[in-house]
Amino acid sequence: MTEVGPFERGTDGPRVILVGVDGSPTSLRAASYAAGLARRQRSRLVAVFVTEAAPAMAGWVPSAQALVRDAAAEVDAELRAELARAAEQLGVDAEYRTASGDPVAELTRIADQVLADAVVIGASEQAGHRVVGSVAVRLVRLGRWPVTVVP
């Protein structure tokens, strides 16, 4: 009998799929893709919305931090409700989490915490990420899970 290493969970296909969502069109496509994959694989879906701890513009404009916080709370509530509706409609075991901080660090932390077998993320639409590196590229470079980047 071959001994299985700690990374092997003894299943065919992913049991837990983590998807990063932020309300952008690509993240919503990633969530749809991940939900379909979770349904077909009978996997648990964990959707994660990460807000920045201290937005860069918050220091420039008085009360900007409150506006950014309110906007993030609104997006968070909409995403939570949409995930609940979709999960019920598809019959998918889904969980929604909110975190604050660096998106890569938080997605990594939560993926490790839930023992994610796969990560799904939307491709960045920001031109500057070609130079600095998007969340998707940084997750792929970590090489800890299969990462699907949805355009």
Task: Indicate the overall shape.
Answer: globular
* Cα-based radius of gyration, to the nearest Å: 16 Å
Structural class: alpha/beta
Q: From the structure provided, what is the oligomeric state, counting identical versus distinct chains?
A: single chain
CATH architecture: 3-Layer(aba) Sandwich
- List the domain count as a whole number: 1
SS elements, strand count:
5
> What is the helix tally?
5
At the first level of CATH, the class is Alpha Beta
- For the record, give the distance between the C-alpha atoms at the N and C termini, rounded to a whole number: 42 Å
* Helix-strand pattern: EHEHEHEHHE
Indicate the CATH topology: Rossmann fold
The CATH superfamily appears as HUPs
Q: Which residues form runs of ≥5 with pLDDT under 50?
A: 128-132
Reading side by side through the largest sheet, how are the strands ordered? 3-2-1-4-5
State the share of residues found in helices, binned by percent.
Answer: 40-55%
Strand content: 15-25%
The overall average pLDDT, rounded, is 84
Query: What's the story with the biggest beta sheet?
Result: 5 strands, parallel
How is this structure best described in words?
The structure is a single chain. The chain has a five-stranded parallel beta sheet, sandwiched between helices. The chain has a single domain (16-150), classed as Rossmann fold, CATH 3.40.50.620. The model is unreliable at 128-132 (pLDDT under 50). The protein has helices at 25-41, 64-90, 103-113, 129-132, 135-142; strands spanning 16-21, 44-51, 93-100, 118-122, 147-150. It is 44% helix and 21% strand. Strand 2 (44-51), helix 2 and strand 3 (93-100) form a beta-alpha-beta unit. By secondary structure, it is of the alpha/beta class.
